[in-house]
Each structure stands twice: as structure tokens, then as C-alpha cells.
Amino acid sequence: xxxxxxxxxxxxxxxxxxxxxxxxxxxxxxxxxxxxxxxxxxxxxxxxxxxxxxxxxxxxxxxxxxxxxxxxxxxxxxxxxxxxxxxxxxxxxxxxxxxxxx
Length: 102
Hints:
- Helix content is about 70%, strand content about 0%.
- The protein is an all-alpha fold.
- The chain has one domain.
- The protein is elongated, with a radius of gyration of 15 Å.
- It starts with 8 loop residues before the first helix and ends in a 5-residue tail after the last helix.
- The relative contact order is 0.19.
- The mean pLDDT is about 90.
């Protein structure tokens, strides 16, 4: 539950269709691997991965910050898990290819 972003209910109570709104977080997390793969700066995978994950999810985490019932804790946890996902993707890519970048 921590990894995917906010729950749809947090948007449903605001009159927003939550099941659709959370797809922004799903899509951002799905694109982390692509961004890690096509980005070459910084060259070290252990820096690039977390930065790519954070870059994709941070704009959406500002929506978390503005959502009643979510706030700063949701923002921080979504950013932390996105950076962790980027680190994992970068590490996996390095383990498979033994190259820091393409």
C-alpha cells in the first residue's frame, strides 16, 4: 500500500473520482525504469536511480501535500518509496549489465 501512492478514497471524499486520480502515481512509478534507462546524468546508478524516482513522483507528491487527510506524511513517504524504487531499478540494471549507464 505504501508503494503505489494515495488510496482512491482520499480523493472520493473531495468529489474527485479517486480510482482515476491514483493512476497518476501508478504511471509515474511505471516510468521510473524507463527514465533510469535513458538518463546518463549522473553516471553512477546509485545516484541516478533515486534521483529519477524522485523526479517523477515529486510533482505528484505536492498533490499529496494539498490533499486533506494526507498531508506531509504522505508526501514524504511517496518520495522515499519512489527514491527506493529508483535505487532498486538502477541496482537491478547494473547487476544485469555491469554498466553504470547506456
